Amino acid sequence: MEKSSFEQMGVTYHQEGDYFLPNLTVPESVFIGIWGQRRRQYLRKHRKALYDALLLSGKLDSHLANIDQQAEDMFSQLVEQMAEQASITEQLKANSQMEWVGRMNNIRSRAIELINSELIYI
User: Fold this and answer.
1) Rounded to the nearest 5 degrees, what angle is found at the Cα of 34, between the Cα atoms of 32 and 36?
2) 3-state SS string over 83-119?
3) Can you give the pLDDT at residue 1?
4) Does any domain span residue 25?
5) Residue 10, CB half-sphere, CA atoms under 13 Å: how many?
6) Which residues, 6+ apart, have CB-to-CB distance to 81 below 8 Å?
7) 17 within some domain
8) Domain annotation covers residue 1
9) Cα–Cα distance between 91 and 83 in angstroms, integer?
10) Mean pLDDT to the nearest integer, 40-47
11) 14 within some domain
12) What pTM value is reported for the model?
């Protein structure tokens, strides 16, 4: 008996009742955080060809996970460096919590804008 095109590609089957069903597996899912989700949204709306190419080649999730990891590392580093440059210390946090919160929120906003312009929206 001649092999079907699926069997020629190496697909195996198992029998359930009267039916032969292919042994298919779902690829492992990758965690995609907020930065990767923002990148996906941007690609879907503004870079449709790139989004479709990554999706069809199966590289979209790994691309988004990579961007997410890069952005998370960059965010932590930027916040730490900017806080050090602005002399925002634990002593300030202990003495004036509201001032510390305001200044840290300002730094976080600046870091988010930098990451968006350098990694997400390109």
Assistant:
1) 50
2) HHHCCCCHHHHHHCHHHHHHHHHHHHHHHHHHHHHHH
3) 66
4) no
5) 0
6) none
7) no
8) no
9) 13
10) 97
11) no
12) 0.75
